[in-house]
Structures are given as C-alpha cells and as structure tokens.
Specification:
This protein is α/β, with parallel strands linked by helices. The protein is built from 8 helices and 7 strands, in the order E-H-E-H-E-H-E-H-E-H-E-H-H-H-E. The chain has a single domain, classed as 3-Layer(aba) Sandwich (Rossmann fold).
Length: 253
C-alpha cells in the first residue's frame, strides 16, 4: 500500500471529491481524519473506513474558523500522534459575474475555498516539519482558464494555485511538498444544479474532449499520487485533471 503508516487530514471529507479522497487514502493504508462542517456526514465516512480496517476520525469542523481548525488539528494529533498528509478539499461553488455578485457571497466563497487552505496549512505544517510530508490543495481548472459566471469561485481557485507555489518554496527545505489539483467539471453535489437540465448537461459534457465529466474517484486518484512517494520529486505544481477541458477549443472552426 502506498500510504501505509501515514496519517492524513481531509477537509470537506464528508461528500464529493473529499469523500472519494478519504476512501482512496484509507484504501492505500493511511489513517484518516475527516474534517467536515456536517459532522454526521464525516461520521458516516469514518465509520465506513473503520469497517474496512482503516483507522479514522470524524470531526465537525468549520475550516473557515481558526479556532475550529486549531481544535481539529489538536484532536488529530491526540488520536494519531502525527500528520503526514493534508488534503485541503473543502469548497463551495458561487456562480455570478462580478456585477451580479454580492459582498456576502464573495466573502463566504473566499473564506471556505481559500482562507481554509491558509488556516489548515498554518496549523498543520508545524507538525509536519520532521520528517516532512505532503500537502495537496484543491484548486480548479477555472483557476487557470476563464469560465463565465465564476468570478468569486475562479478568483479563489486561482489564488490557491498561487498560494500552492509560494508554500512549496517556503517549506521545501523541510521536505514538505505542496501541490494542487485542478479538476474539470466533476459529478459532485457542487454541480448538481447544472446537471438537472439534460441539455445543459449535454453541453457541459461536450466541453470535455474525452467525452465525459469527471468522477470524484478520477480526482482522488491524482490526490493519492501527489500524497505518496510516487511524486517525491514534485512540488509547487498544479496538476490538471479535467478530461481535456482546459486544452483549448472543443469544436472544428
């Protein structure tokens, strides 16, 4: 197993890509602490992992709140004694252009998507300095290419790409690798509204040259790679997992 003996924290681990990541990390031998605002969802996944022989801890955590994050890190250390992997996954989707966005939505998007990466990293890194570890942040293809009606969301994800690079430089001397994953449109609760319209779903699928939307497992596999020693000489990178969405034009001109 790729992660035997490792301890991982997964934020937003109660659903979507976070849930798939918690399962994948556990399957590869890691003990997993699941941070999620929905404590019941976190518990369900932790119980599932425990039933499969994986040590797991469920914590109801608001990752945009520093006190919650600090308490979550302390409970993880009390349970497992160390932190090897931090997977910053928690996020929300906000879909408006700038002129139609309100301040409260903008601030909430930045707090959940971006501030949480800062807070969880701030509190986890001091416990990863010896002998090092891996941080995998959740960005998005919308953070590196333009997508209409995603002003706050794209801004938060683009900032994660930049933050990832800076953190990689700051902590490389401690053998802490920091990378991010940039998924294309993936079948999770975040895009449930888009998929409710069959025609909109058809058009959305057509923007991905490989001919389908992503699954949470597609992204989780990339997270396992970046968390493991298979990527031991990779840091500061934004790994695009998007079925070709960001490559360019999708139709003949």
């Amino acid at each position: 197993m790729l992660l035997n003996g490792k301890v991982a924290i997964v934020t937003g681990g109660g659903s979507g890509i976070g849930m798939a990541s918690a399962r994948a990390l556990g399957r590869e031998g890691a003990s997993v602490a699941i941070f999620d605002r929905d404590a019941q969802s976190a518990k369900q996944i932790a119980d599932e992992l425990a039933a499969q022989g994986c040590e797991a801890l469920a914590l109801g955590i608001d990752v945009s709140c520093e006190d919650d994050v600090g308490a979550g890190i302390a409970k993880t250390l009390a349970k497992f004694g160390k932190i090897d992997i931090l997977q910053n996954n928690a996020g929300i989707a906000v879909r408006h252009p700038v002129t139609e966005e309100d301040e409260a939505n903008w601030d909430k998007c930045m707090a959940v998507n971006l501030k949480s990466v800062f807070l969880c990293s701030k509190h986890a890194i001091p416990h990863m300095l010896n002998p090092g570890g891996s941080i995998v942040n959740m960005a998005s293809v919308t953070g590196i290419v333009g997508v209409r009606n995603r002003s706050a969301y794209s801004a938060s994800k683009g900032a994660i790409v930049a933050l990832t690079r800076n953190m990689a430089l700051d902590y490389a001397r401690f053998q802490i690798r920091v990378n991010c994953v940039c998924p294309g449109f993936t079948r999770t609760p975040l895009i449930k509204g888009l998929l409710a319209d069959p025609e909109k779903e058809r058009r959305l699928v057509a923007t991905h040259p490989l001919g389908r939307l992503g699954t949470p497992e597609d992204v989780a596999n990339a997270i396992v790679f970046l968390a493991s020693d298979l990527s031991s000489w990779i840091t500061g990178q934004a790994l695009v997992v998007d079925g070709g969405f960001g490559v360019g034009a999708y139709e003949d001109i």
